[in-house]
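Lecture notes, unit on protein representations.

Consider one protein chain, 287 amino acids long.
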Amino acid sequence: MLPRFEYVKPDRLEEALSFLDMHSNESRIIAGGTDLLVKMREGKTRPLWVVDLSGIREFGGVELKSETISIGPLATIREVEESPLIRDKAPMLSAALKEFAFWQIKNMATLGGNLCNASPASDLATPLLALSSKLRFLSLRGERIIPIDDFFLGPGETAIRQDEILAEILIPTPKSKLWAFNKLGKRSAHVLSIVNVAAAMEISQDRCEDLHLALGSVAPKPVRAKGVENYLKNAALSDKQIWEASKKVVNDIDPISDLRASAEYRKEMSVKLTEKSIKDAMDRGKT
């Protein structure tokens, strides 16, 4: 059963920001509601006010602004998945979106809400990490833009301030077409990950010019595998070199044991999925 709360639905951004400025400690923002309502029923959060942002039109949509993809925080998972712009310019994110939940959830859940939920197992955070995305926040105090690397602090914890609203997800147009997204779960899709890996690469003359590698469900928050990235920087991409690099991923993760998998199994699969993701990304350069 849901606890008692007051419901507010601002029609304008300024109205929403003003309300949060006055009631920031007592309010929770609702987007699609697929995460917040569950937490409220379980008693994990008991806000006095629930602020519905769905009436603010500028928070929807997907568009290209110069060389940056802009996604509104209220764009649904289905809307982003079906966007021709995302399929063309950010196919790694598109691939992750296809494996996200069932269609009923996709029609309700929003990308902004999913990120702010800060699940360590998020399948959408890792592609955005690998793509060097940024997040734009608004409050009455002004605007703040931070790299997504600095956003996740722990399970359910983020760097968003209590009076702020996530206003925009910004993805720089990828320079390289070499990418991969791999997910291991109890089934191939529509379930929480045991491990997920996203990789974006740049290669020059069979050497790794740049690598962004992110993993989910293997630490208290989605993480970049900086040890793997640094090991392969400017390195020749032989099978042996890739395997040695992949083994270093265990230094970047801190998995737990739960009902889905043991910590040791997650470590083992992280190494194997890291190797597979690097090779899958390389293979895109051969087609």
